[in-house]
Design goal:
Blueprint: E1 4-11, H1 14-29, E2 33-37, H2 42-48, H3 54-60, E3 65-70, H4 76-81, H5 97-104, E4 109-115, E5 129-135, E6 145-146, H6 151-160, H7 162-166, E7 178-179, H8 185-202, E8 206-211, H9 219-231, E9 238-243, H10 244-253, E10 260-263, H11 265-278, E11 286-290, E12 295-299, H12 316-328, H13 332-348
Helix pairs in contact: 1-12, 8-9, 10-11, 12-13
The structure holds 3-isopropylmalic acid and magnesium ion.
3-isopropylmalic acid binds next to helix 5.
């Protein structure tokens, strides 16, 4: 019997290419695993009106960790039109399977390391080593939204926020959409603690909370207040608080000043793309969605429909995601060998995909 059971979910488009490439590397490494395929993505939306079938959920409960490639998602109307005829008009609504996975398994931590490997011509600056901790289940991604605004919700809001709601007088419910941003104390505490633990383990000197408490007082405020309490338990590590807008500016100006960043779901989504671009772009952006029982590792890039079937995109983000999985499984030695190999290939500069100015294939 293999040492590990690994969920294998290539998904759509170039997800398949980068997963195939990663498999070659894992096999070479001698990683002792049985790979269990999981159906996920657009094909299953079209055929079953469910891009994350129950059998895949079941599978994820029975593996040690999983790798996920990419998925295609389209806005509501286009998604509906893509269904097989008999499922059209049945009220099925497309929901991103990766967002659902995160929620379903409480994969509360999204870990996104962004390291500038020496010799990468795409590095914005040498020596960068940023790590984003993104709260992965709450906030704007909870999907608690209204359109049109129900009258009873409106009445309650008028009661609690009379002056703010007065600006909507004369606007019909039909013309109002609301997306809620829900934070919990526990959610904030966990992501902040994850950030500090990581900083301590790997010797980062600061943890920066990236929020906007001067405007979004209650949710960002909760995160910052919890961070201040937790920071006291980590005397050697500085707590910095930077607003999301200013953070984008500072990351372009002085990215080398930062180490671990902690943010909520949507701000973390945004700032992690910025960090990724500082170290070469989405072709290098690996990530882990980590919960107490289940963990899914994926590149941050999408399915890149225009490159489908071309064996063209950079597999490094996926390979580094596999490296994160090895770390998660406690295979530190293999993880290190894999990362060293990636670093050596980047430094040598002979094998380069199109994003790095080369013409090598994904394989
Ligand atoms: C990411 C992606 C996803 C997100 C999309 C594909 C739903 O942008 O993992 O960062 O918004 O979380
Ligand atoms: Mg994103």
């Amino acid at each position: 019997m293999a040492k590990y059971r690994i969920g294998w979910m290539p998904g759509d488009g170039v997800g398949v290419d980068v997963m195939d490439a990663t498999r070659i590397v894992l096999d070479k490494l001698g990683f002792d695993a049985e790979y269990v395929h999981g159906d996920i993505g657009w094909e299953f939306w079209q055929k079953e009106a469910n891009p994350l079938p129950d059998r895949t959920i079941e599978m994820l409960n029975n593996v040690d960790a999983s790798l996920f490639g990419a998925i295609t998602s389209l806005p509501k109307e286009e998604a509906e039109a893509a269904l097989v005829p008999e499922l059209r008009g049945t009220g099925k609504v497309y929901r991103s399977p990766i967002v659902r996975l995160r929620q379903e398994f409480n994969l509360r931590t999204n870990l996104r390391p962004c390291k500038a490997y020496p010799g990468n011509p795409l590095n914005f600056r040498d020596g960068l080593d940023l790590v984003v901790f993104r709260q992965n289940t709450e906030g704007l991604y909870m999907g608690v939204e209204y359109h049109p605004l129900p009258q009873d919700v409106r009445d309650k809001l008028i009661e609690t926020h009379p002056s703010q709601m007065a600006t909507l007088d004369g606007t019909a419910n039909e013309d109002i959409a609301i997306s809620t941003r829900i934070f919990t104390r526990k959610g904030c505490q966990q992501i902040v603690r994850d950030g500090f633990e990581y900083a301590r383990k790997f010797g980062y000197k600061s943890v920066t909370i990236v929020e906007k408490p001067n405007v979004v007082r209650e949710t960002s405020g909760l995160m910052v207040r919890e961070a201040r309490k937790i920071a006291e338990e980590y005397p050697g590590i500085e707590l910095w608080e930077t607003n999301i807008d200013a953070m984008c500016m500072w990351l372009v100006k002085n990215p080398q000043d930062y180490g671990v960043l902690v943010s909520s779901n949507m701000f973390g989504d945004i700032v992690s793309d910025l960090c990724a671009q500082l170290v070469g772009g989405l072709g290098f952006a690996c990530s882990g969605n980590i919960g107490d029982k289940v963990a899914v590792f994926e590149p941050s890039h999408g399915s890149a429909p225009k490159y489908v079937g071309m064996n063209k995109v950079n597999p490094i983000a996926m390979i580094l995601s596999a490296k994160m999985m090895l770390d998660h499984l406690g295979e530190a030695d293999m993880a290190e060998r894999l990362e060293n190999a990636v670093a050596a290939v980047i430094a040598a500069g002979e094998v380069r995909t199109y994003d790095m100015g080369g013409s090598s294939t994904t394989t």
